[in-house]
Protein 1
Amino acid sequence: MTQQTDTIAASAGAPGRGGIAVVRISGPRALSVLEAVFAPGRSALSAAASGFRFRPRILHYGQALGADGPPIDEVLAVHMPGPASATGEDVAELHCHGGPGVVSGLLESIFAAGARPAGPGEFTRRAFLNGRMDLTAAEAVAEIIEAPTLEGVRLAKAKLDGALGRRIEALRSALDSLRIQAVLAVDFPDEDAELLNPPAFAAGIAQARQGVAELLAAYERASLWREGAVCLLVGAVNAGKSSLLNALLGRSRAIVSPLPGTTRDYIEETVNLGGLPVRLVDTAGLRETGDVIEAEGMRLTEELADAAQLILLVVDAQRGLGPEEDAFLARRPHALAEGRLILVWNKIDAAPGALPQTPACARVSVSARTGEGLADLSRAVRAALLRSESPAPGDLAPNLRQADLLRRVERELAELAGALDAGLPPDILAVHLDAAADLLEEITGKSGAEDLLDRIFADFCIGK
């Protein structure tokens, strides 16, 4: 256990107003700080002054005292002795009304009693340093907080109890078995035929690579649900892209005007399509222009189209496909072939009759003004984005940092397999095994520099 000499405190909730707020304290002085700011029942005396004693893990009703003595609010208080606590240290919490004045006053009193303000992610960092969780579980805490949909929460929760860390440890244990063989073969070169059996060694490498491949496949399945997909709205001026964006969002976000060129830059908003987070991007209309700003907006549209997971080419049904759309389609043969483009025939309420022939791609007819066809469009977008396999229940999906390290592990194992096939000596094999094992330890936090922890926990919110 890492001994911390100072005591930290912070609000565990989001800033702003709410019915209830939780103020958390952690460190060696957590109990004494709590006793200084808490008066049991309706007493005006602090817990320490009144002789009151907290029963561990029992909520107690009382008054929160201000730094100058008078009560601030009615609260519930609890003391949770370490090491059986969230951080592995003594922890205390005060549950108060969620007004910013109450919370700030209570924190001021707590700081006056000997605690200091917690930094971003410092509670979770202490839990990691004290062995209450490995780094994969600590990162899962942040992923749950940041998850934009329930599916993202489920994916993060699967790792919260350290299941991913245990999976990584199992891989590392398998590599340790291979490392032992390689080290013994180095130390006893005359016995290498018995100590390092090439077929069995190759089978061990293949099994480890399969385990890494399964985790990377889970990352690919989950990345769309966790990070969202970019869906680009493209079309000629006045095709109704901004109206369609507003209709899909259910509110006015983009300026709608009959004047061409109203949207000069791109506008981005996120919508939840059946648990799938989709970032809708409204772009500048396609047309020839001498306006420098509008031209730059169209250049950005081309760049975004190359990177987007899905393109909605919005066409005015009254006008049909024009040279701007034809040129855009001609520049995107791969998007058509890969099913990354949907033709959205807009304004069908003003264009009755049969629709003309269009390119061989998915097509949905809608009216952004009346809402007709919007449900069909949402289903089509979701289906197009979910062409690949979706996450399975209990999937242990690494995050971006972990996936990058796993790819490096895979490269080391591939080079290891090549070195074995080439008949290279055991000391060369050991180098690749050591490198792969170190990378796996970096995933779980068993190795890695302090600045790595600083980068990871800097992205946490204060109070977690």
Protein 2
Amino acid sequence: MALVALDVSQSVAFLTLNRPDKLNAINRPMLDELEQALDAAEHDDDVRSIVLRGEGRAFSAGFDLDSPVFDSGSAEAIREELTRDFNVIMRFWDCSKPTVAAVHGYCLGSSMEISAVCDITVAAEDCRFGAPEVRYGSGIVCLVLPWIVGLKNSKELLLTGGNVDAARALSIGLVNRVVPSHELPAAAEAIAREIAANDPQAVRLTREAINRGLETAGLRRALAQALEYDIRIETTETAESAAFRKIMEAEGLKAALAWRAAQFQKR
């Protein structure tokens, strides 16, 4: 079974994250297929826009926490893994075709970053957004949120590790539109087809001009610097992070989070 399904219909490519039993948590095989699907869509001259969506109950719960790389203790392997993750997210920013993310259920962690770098994001009313990494002692792979939702909103989301509903996401500019859940597929497709009907060169160069403007302001340099901080987080062990990871490996994530909460209450 394909972890990322690719379907093309009337100039629109539909990329579907297809690991519903894991809430479309993105692991290394899915990353490989996601890149392959993007390559195919970009190289298909008939494709004028791309819709990214998720199968099942959620768009995606983010990158899979079960990667053995982070248990290896190898700083070099961790750097390689995080750089790969970062590059795949930025593929959507650098994509030669305009992208529309259709998100529902959960849009968490790095999947929220992917949806944020897509050109347009349409959310179902039931969607929850969040970046829980700090709760696990992890960092942010692609720190694009300050460029999308501003300083205060990004700090609230990233430092609390909490989540927000679709209405709040709309109010802070994380998404373009919020629609009833049953209308999400049609709403995202309608936007993609509206874009596809326009002059492709004008669309491509206008999109490129917008993105390059932000890069001139320092976006890409800032993201590269932030990635180094994420690598530092993931390769630096503290007494608390070591205890948390030990409990998580032995008893699961919920037990580790409960342990951390109990430690805080003792202070």
Protein 3
Amino acid sequence: MAGLLFVFCFHSAVIAQDTTRTSKDTTTGYPQQDIVDFFKSKFKKQQVVVDTLIKGKLPNSDFTYTILPAIGYTLQTRLAIILAGNLTFKTSQVPNQKLSSIYGNIAFTQNRQFTVPIQSNIWTKNNKYNFVGDMRFMIYPQSTFGLGGANDLVKDENKMSYQYFRFYQTVLSEIRKNLYGGIGYMLDLRWAIHEDGYADGHESDFAKYNPQTESVSSGIAFNMLYDNRANAINPDKGFYSNLIYRINPTWMGSNSSWQSILLDMRKYFQLSRKMHRVLGFWSYNWLVTSGNPPYLDLPATAWDAYTNTGRGFIQGRFRGKKMLYLESEFRTDITRNGLLGAVAFFNVQSFDEWPQGGFKYLQPAGGVGLRIKLNRISNTNVTIDYGFGKGGSHGLFINVGEIF
């Protein structure tokens, strides 16, 4: 769930090799600082010591967590009250062990939305297996704007509401170094689906496509993953590629039989050895290859796993059977201690037209952002971005962890 602004922050760490808070960044050589260090230096008498409570549970391991009661604002939620938690750890101390993470939050929003997402990325010892999970429960009033790329932000707004449960779980096994293959199960269950329709009364694309009050997509996913990034939360170099082929047969409970392919690729270039300066590229391509998924299961803006595609546009702004997406971002430190950073980004997306098919429109967006170090040990940032999209769209986009 994106959209966090600080109210109060609390985190702790148990690091076998480093139990102090004065470590130096291996790239810059300067002492690093996060938001907790900053506040502790200003309010020393209010420090909370909890390390001893954790050491007995996870000895000889890297273990950090963050608890963040917060308020937030995004285009799709407006004002939100959020309790977020982030846990990062290593399952062993072997060299090159990848960092595992679990993220979850509970949010109540001004748009009467209630969301509970829990996402996990767990690496076993020596990175032999990778367990990737995504669970969500949502009560979610949200506007949709029809299919394809020719929709108007005001004229084609169709207010909808529904309840949603997602369960995705994938197990990947190492084929060779950094290359994994595996299988998973994916379930998307929606009920109490309701639309208000367009203001001028003309028939909506939802009504034309396949109006449903309930929908089920249940199927098997085959995965191929390559990932040589040391830290997925805030990569400074490396390459990531994930190919997912999803099959949703009716015998597994799906309303209709359909299939899709998702190809997610990310590349990072470290531009400086003296400071954190990175150029990143992200390609996200989500294609329905056969059948007709439920309307709300179609590829759509910001409906990737972490709701991050399309900064500059509201979630669900564009939707179709095929989605092509490309983004680039430049990241740099503002302060030598890593507490503050900045980014500039640009993205473009295109969706096929319905029902005729074919790509006709490009939807560009871009913006700038601020980074605040939430946890220097896991290198987790709070990202505060302002994006501008085609057609007068603009807004604030806030997250925990880099966008890609």
Protein 4
Amino acid sequence: MRIAQIAPLAESVPPKLYGGTERVVSYLTDELVAMGHDVTLFASGDSRTSAALVAGSAKALRLDPMIREPLACTVAMIEKLWRMRGQFDIIHNHVDYVSMPLLRRQATPALTTLHGRLDWPELATVYREFRDHPVVSISGAQQMPLPWMNWIGTVHHGLPQGLLAPPETPTRDYLAFLGRISPEKGPEAAIRLALRTGMPLKIAAKVDRADHEYYASIIKPLIDGRNIEYIGEIGETEKAAFLGNAYALMFMIDWPEPFGIVMIESMACGTPIVAMRRGSVPEVIEHGVTGFVVDSEADALSAIGLAASLDRRRIRREFERRFSSGRMARDYLKLYALLAEPEDSPLLVAEG
């Protein structure tokens, strides 16, 4: 099958540091190529991929200080897709509604995976204009604000099985926070819980420009370098050691998380997760097996005490069973067939 993958330009594919959507696009693209498909990736020019690369920008926009109008690069990339549209059997869009006006006005079958939150009112306004366009959710919970959209399936994210692995003898002597410093990600709660347990907390996270004030006024004063340590952003090669040696991953979010790829990264390393019951969390974590789904900080405190009882080898096995990039690619291929070969394909809804 000839497949176009359209990635955001904010990060390279895969990202050099923080980045969720571009990371998933990377894993999916390379898995499809390994399965024998002809894949073209539209992404930043510094991306690393086994597919044919069409560059939408010279490098990842977030890391390019010369870029002042990032949407301009995305629009230019979409125009390149328009000129090449006849070369593909299916177009898989990962830049949300930006590409939908084009995708509606051309004949090649197309679908969009929505990677973000959908509970903001203005999103309902734009998506009502494209409610006929086939869309895929990354969790069942993500669909809840907009149930009337043309959902053709849910595909949970997946990682290459060899990407991350548990260390042979994990130290398990600290709690971990990985991702982004912002109020909805719950770093304050993670810090409070670490202080109450007496366990060190290591924070590996980026700070977006919009969250600089929050970090400077709320989080930074709590970092003492001993009990609470801020490491900064880490890359893919550093995650196995960071997550694998942690006693538990703290995922005390306060927003409707559409998926939360850090949860399956932690599982790949055999590390249990303590997570608030928000968004996709109950779909991803099997309570009492791969971690604990909690409803309060008091519940989280109890869960931390129980984390050592979980079988880290089983956590890794559950990752392999449910969240591999191979499973993700097979689920998407079912949806591609549904759109590209509708007369020959049964109505299949992919599940993670």
